[in-house]
């Protein structure tokens, strides 16, 4: 089933909770974005999971080294999913996947800054990640790169796919029509005039493709 994930790339837990009051009912996965994780730490995971126990809470800490140590910190705090960079050493990615299994948690492997995403995804897929994520990074979103187009490069990859980077209401249906299982929306969901109205419309569109 396709899912909607909100990426809360904010700096304060209070800000995140304020947004979630408006949209939380309609999202499947609550992502505590990297800025929030750096600013507030694992305590934010614990606080938000306590308030939204029925939702998948994703700690986007983009692990690059210390796979088991870093994953353990947020999974122990209550995270249901954690991210590791595809650019990390193979051993690091495997350690994150093994650590997540102990918590019955999920792992998203983030392809941000990978030059040949298909070749790297082919290497990673046999290790059993839950998602391989095509990610148009924040610093290159003004280049016109489109995650919905990028996902087509992974057509032969059988692992469930996620995509992030500039998806908004205008491009949301195209994302739903693609091979993306986890559609990740950040500012396109909450840096808008009415987050509640926007998320309801995204939910309506997504329901047609579930």
Any overview of this molecule?
The protein is α/β, with parallel strands linked by helices and 210 residues long. It has a single domain, classed as Aldolase class I (TIM Barrel), CATH 3.20.20. It is built from 10 helices and 8 strands. The chain is globular.
CATH architecture: Alpha-Beta Barrel
User: What's the CATH C level?
Assistant: Alpha Beta
Q: What percent of residues adopt helix (DSSP H or I)?
A: 40-55%
Spatial extent as radius of gyration? 16 Å
Distance between the termini: 5 Å
Number of domains: 1
How do you describe this structure in short?
This protein is an alpha/beta fold. The chain has helices spanning 13-23, 34-40, 42-51, 67-76, 90-102, 117-124, 147-150, 169-177, 187-190, 195-207, and strands at residues 3-8, 29-32, 56-63, 81-85, 106-110, 131-135, 161-164, 182-185.
């Amino acid at each position: 089933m396709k899912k909607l994930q909100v990426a809360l790339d904010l700096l304060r837990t209070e800000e995140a909770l304020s947004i979630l009051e408006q949209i939380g009912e309609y999202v499947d996965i609550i992502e505590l974005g990297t800025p929030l994780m750096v600013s507030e730490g694992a305590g934010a995971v614990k606080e938000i999971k306590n308030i939204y126990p029925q939702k998948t809470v994703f700690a986007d800490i983009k692990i690059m080294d210390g796979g088991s140590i870093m994953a353990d910190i947020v999974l122990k705090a209550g995270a249901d999913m954690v991210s590791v960079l595809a650019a990390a050493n193979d051993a690091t990615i495997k350690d994150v996947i093994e650590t997540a299994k102990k918590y019955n948690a999920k792992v998203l492997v983030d392809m941000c800054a990978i030059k040949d995403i298909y070749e790297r995804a082919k290497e990673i897929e046999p290790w059993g990640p839950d998602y391989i994520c095509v990610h148009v990074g924040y610093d290159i979103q003004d280049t016109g790169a489109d995650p919905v187009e990028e996902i087509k490069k992974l057509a032969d990859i059988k692992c469930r796919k996620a995509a992030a980077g500039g998806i908004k209401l205008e491009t949301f249906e195209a994302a739903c029509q693609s091979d993306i299982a986890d559609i990740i929306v950040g500012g396109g969901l909450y840096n808008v005039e009415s987050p509640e109205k926007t998320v309801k419309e995204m939910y309506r569109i997504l329901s047609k493709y579930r």
